[in-house]
Amino acid sequence: MSSSRTIPLFPLRIVMFPRGRAELQIFERRYIDLIRNCLKTNTGFGICLLKTGEETIREDSQQTVHRTGTYANIVDWDQLDNGLLSITAEGQNKFHIDNCWQEESGLLMAEAAFSNSDLVDNEQIPVDDEFAPLTDLLQNLESHPLIEQKKLIIDYDNLWDLGWRLGDLIPIANEQKQQLLEIDDPWDRIESIERLVSEMANEDV
Tens digit of pLDDT for each residue in 65-105? Predict the structure, then answer.
C-alpha cells in the first residue's frame, strides 16, 4: 500500500473492483453534497461494503464498513424525471482504511492507504492458456443483456482484469466478493475464483 490520504466514503451493499461500474441514485443530502463536490473538483469517493447498518441513515442503527474498498470516479451523471440525481461510478484503485469517522453531516470519512498494484493503470499480466475456461466464462457473463448495459471495459489479456470482472459478475455472496477484493496477489485471486466456480458447478450436478 502507498501513503495515506483522506477520502469520503459511500457505504453500499455491493463490492466494487477496479474498472467495475455501479449505477447509483442519489437522494440523501450528505451524498448530494458529496457528488456535487466531486463533480466540481473532479475527484471521487470510496465505495465500501457495509458490515452493519443500512445504506440510508437511521436513528436506531450505525453504519460500519469493511476496511478494504475501491476508490471510484464519476464517469456519467443525469438529473432524473423524479428529481433524483443518477450517477455512474467506475472503480479505479483499491484501498485499505486505516481510520474512519463520521462527520456532523452523517458522511463517513476515512484515512485510506491506496494499493500500488490493484488499480486500473497497473502493469498488465498476460493471461495463460490454463485460464481459458475462466475467459470463456467471463465472455458468457458479459454477453448477458443486463451486463451489456454496464458497458464494461474488459482486457481479456490481463490477469488483473480477468480477476476483477469475474469477482464482479459470478453469482456469489457479497461476503465472498469482499474476500476476493481483499486478496492482493492476482494469481491467488484467480485460484480462489476457480475454486468458487468449481464449487458452483458441483452444486448444479
Answer: 999 999 999 999 988 777 788 999 999 999 999 999 989 88
Q: Would you say how long the chain is, in residues?
A: 205
Residue 176 lies in domain: 129-204
Cα gap 7→109, rounded to integer Å: 6
pTM of the model: 0.91
* Angular region, 100: left φ>0, alpha ψ -120 to 50, beta rest: beta
Q: Which of 177, 151, 182, 150 is nearest to 166 (CA)?
A: 177
Give whole-number Cα distances, 179 to 10, 16, 94, 111, 130, in Å: 19, 12, 13, 21, 23
Count of the separate structural domains present in the chain: 2
